[in-house]
Design goal:
The chain is of the alpha+beta class. 41% of the residues lie in helices and 13% in strands. A hairpin with a 2-residue loop joins strand 5 and strand 6.
Amino acid sequence: MAKRLGEILIEKNLITIEQLEEATEIQCLYGGRLGTGLIELGAIDEDTLGLVLSEIHRLTYFKPSLLMDIPAELIELVPRQLALKHLVVPCKLEGKRLLLAMSNPSDLSAIDDLAFNLGYRVVPVVVPELRLFLALNKYYRRKLSPRLISLGRQLMSGGPRKRTDAEAVGPAANAPLGLQDYKEEVLSEDAVRNVDELEEVLDIEDLLVEDEEPAQGSEQWPELDGSSLSGGLSDAEYHQLASLAEPETEAADAPSPAAEADSIEELEELDIIEEIEPEEEPVPEEDSEEERPAGPLEFSAFCEQLIRAEDRDDIATCLIRYLAQEFEAGGILMTKGGEVMGWRGTLGSVPIPEFERFHVSLDQPSVLLTVAESKSYYLGPLPDTEQNNQLMNHFGTERPATVLLIPLLLRGRLVSILYIQDNVDTISDKLAELQRLVSKSSMAFEMLVLKNKILMS
């Protein structure tokens, strides 16, 4: 059996076992290739990674940074639709041989399709996933996720640095002005933060299972000039990425369709799995059926789905189906590096297609910050703050009377938050069951991480 990337990197003394395990956990939780996680940790640089990938695939090495300096006439050889379909960027033309950086250089059917449509002999080269997606953004206007925007900025400014869990939520001494007042307001307006308070307010008993623990800047990204395929970001514009502040969080009012089409700050949920679809192709109805409940399921059925989960998307599908079946609206958010990003959302039984564009930093007053700091659930009203309103707007225009947010912890570290809105009676009736499901989802993530760690050795 062919050796895996992590095994080869350890044999070459390029990374440690601890770094490999941490990168594997990042991959299980946030998606993407293992190499992207290693770059994110600062465990390896992209040039070294590119050399090892070329060795593994027995392909020509192409320096990743050169991918950002491709002539316009070469980019025009590959139409945008084809480039986004197969996730490729042209690198070099040698007579009838066209070198293409590919997301999956072993995909023979994709190589055949490209050769047929382009009229060249396609020679695949491999580059790290992160650099390929940055190039697709520059030349073909493929949207970047908040995670890749942050990584790209770090890469252009000297490389990602290691982050600590303490950086996920800053110390209270650095809390923004008005945060304490916000907390006092929340806790004074019928917000429930623990079981004792919940029983007192709602007169409900036995809500928890005893044997289970409860679970910046305002600068805009540069806009594209012109409409030609090669008229994406210029080199000068693209390299502004290194000096820009964090991407501005979305405004309470949704931008116009025209603005959305031209701005590369638009965010999609770029889970960075190998089978990701180009954003310009509409998702067929049948692709979303797995998220829509065919009929009410028993709680045990959801637990069985978690046991069978093969990846993070299986876990998300199980959770979102439960939320769709039981509540008016709900969503799953991922937390990482002091940021919260939308993952899946549902309004009744209808998926919310734009929910993955939700993205805020944990530096402003919000119920998300309250949950992140306390690592306990929040049940109560949704106060009128900028970030709360951004979250609310994905689920309708009316402010919900009651919301519930439950943290999903992995070995004590916050990795996700479940958001639910419905009437207080419905939520309180399902609270204990919800907490059990979140606890079991944490176990499912843990099993997924352990399975991948077993496979990597």
